[in-house]
Amino acid sequence: MTISIRSVEKKFGRYPALNKVDLEIADGELLALLGPSGSGKTTLLRTIAGLEFPDEGQVLFDGEDVTYASAAARRVGFVFQQYALFKHMTVAKNIAFGLDVRKGQDKPSKAEIARRVEDLLKLVELEGLGQRYPSQLSGGQRQRVALSRALAVQPSVLLLDEPFGALDATVRKSLRRELRRVHDATGVTTIFVTHDQEEALELADRVAILNQGRIEQIGTPDQVHDQPASAFVCGFVGEANSFQGEVSSGRFSAGALALPASGVRDGAAMAYVRPHDFVLDDAGFEVRVDRAHVQGALTTVNATTLDGRRIEISASRAEAARFQGAVRVAARKAHVYAA
Amino acid sequence: MSAVATRHRRATDDPTWAKVLVIGTVMAFLALVLILPLVAVFAEALRKGLDAALAAVSNPDALAAVKLTLITAAIAVPFNAVFGLCASWAIAKHDFWGKPFLITLIDLPFSVSPVVAGLIYVLVFGLQGWMGEWLLDNDLKIIFAVPGIVLATIFVTFPFVARELIPLMQEQGTSEEEAAVSMGASGLYTFWRVTAPNVRWGLLYGVLLCNARAMGEFGAVSVVSGHIRGLTNTMPLHVEILYNEYDFVGAFAVAALLCLLAVVTLLLKTALEVAQPDVRAGRGGH
Predict the structure, then answer these.
(1) Considering the domain boundaries, does residue B10 fall inside one?
(2) Which of A76, A87, A159 to mutate to test the interface with B (most CBs of B within 10 A)?
(3) d(CA B160, CA B210)
(4) Do B199 and B219 sit in the same domain of this protein?
(5) Chain segment B85-116, per-residue pLDDT in tens
(6) pTM above 0.90, yes or no
(7) Over the stretch B25-44, which tens digit does the pLDDT of each residue have?
(8) What is the C-alpha to C-alpha distance for residues A156 and A162, in angstroms, rounded to an integer?
(9) Which residues of B touch A135 (CB under 8 A)?
(10) Domain A3-234 classified CATH 3.40.50.300?
(11) How many Å apart are CA B76 and CA B86, to the nearest integer?
């Protein structure tokens, strides 16, 4: 199922939640909508689901206009942030709900439904828990139930709102892999919302970054990390040291710090340097090393420039051993944007 | 303080004297305003023996009062349960113009004196009232008759269920309903299979409170009833009449029966909770 969002606008009162959003999602793709809270990512997801309706613009499923079609008519599977499991129904009843509500010829037989529930429980590795109530499950198990309930109706598209938001770090990590596995097994077009860039970069085929109701950039995880299209994306995706300064004739400067900035117009500008893009360089500027601490295979070095700007440098542990006292560093790569 | 006493203390534990003082105060207060009067009611009822009390309760006028009270509750409570469920569903799950006004209206019976509520019905349906002539022409009796008593009771008791359910439904939000609808459930199906089961305990509690008040209402009913013995006397009104006639045993015997109805209601609620532990397990949710 391909999905096209065409200049969709949505206001809540006078507050614009979505501002002329355009987005194309390919069949079988796993797309992340990434952005800070209030960026409109959940509104966009709910608009695709048919739980919100846009003020302007169109939503197309396989080229067919579904802008004002109901969620049920679109056949979407939606996983809610707090899972929204039916508390008074067993896990099996929860999963079967979308099949139980069908009428007449569309409704599968009891045996068929039971078989389907078993298959889904197996898919999310919850065999034997069908007769439990949601309150008797852990957070991660509830999330799996929500996922299989959404998949039970064989949706044309699977939509997940902050699917891992309420879980602790370990469970979150294993469920991420789980979602990827389920996606690859079913091949269903999947869109999920997250504010966690690590989650988006690890899991998604492509990432759409939203800010203030607009899409700032759409691209593969590599693209949005290595070639950020705007200052916002650069600051939001991946770690970055940010500097406020001036550009004049292709060079950015902020105090003692100087960076290449070709193609940026003269005037006030913001520069971003990834921690791993700082290297020891005798032609660079001088910093004083304050502290170094190990993070797995890498070492993070905190340093201060002569005019008091704090920077963070990331280096291999062998390399980091050379960061002692006063050293000169330069940036291999910098992202400079006119302010 | 000795080492033994401090060993298991937690930061939030209060000193023993404070606990004794607080719990003792509550107990003394409850004994004074709740238990003592309750004991007094039964003691007075049985002062001339069980036979006298039973005779007072089985007197035809008393039986008529019991019957009228039960009929009134049997009409008012289901009506308010349905109304309360509809109103709280509309308020908690939907946005519409005039919602704050509706919430205020639901609270009106709580803020208006029951006597005023009774007078309103006299004004509207009474012989000198707005609809008085029309009702007379069509031979319909509302004031000083059973319909008036039921109407006044419905008015006084209608916030109970709605007030119980609105905060509960608001807390539960709409995502379960959205989930149901997105899987193809109709509005009605969603209401019966998702919304209603989630609030059944709140509904039951609201219904019990509503019932207790419906059976015990005095002020509003007193205004519209006309106090016709054996015809328009409810139990609380009958208690007053007997008391005013210095028939203390009779008054307290009927009062004791009213108390017993309340106790039965509470026992019923407890029994339901004990009998359905799996439902309670499913209730917790998050």
Answers:
(1) no
(2) A87
(3) 5
(4) yes
(5) 999 999 988 888 888 898 899 989 988 899 99
(6) no
(7) 999 999 999 889 889 999 98
(8) 20
(9) 281-285
(10) yes
(11) 15
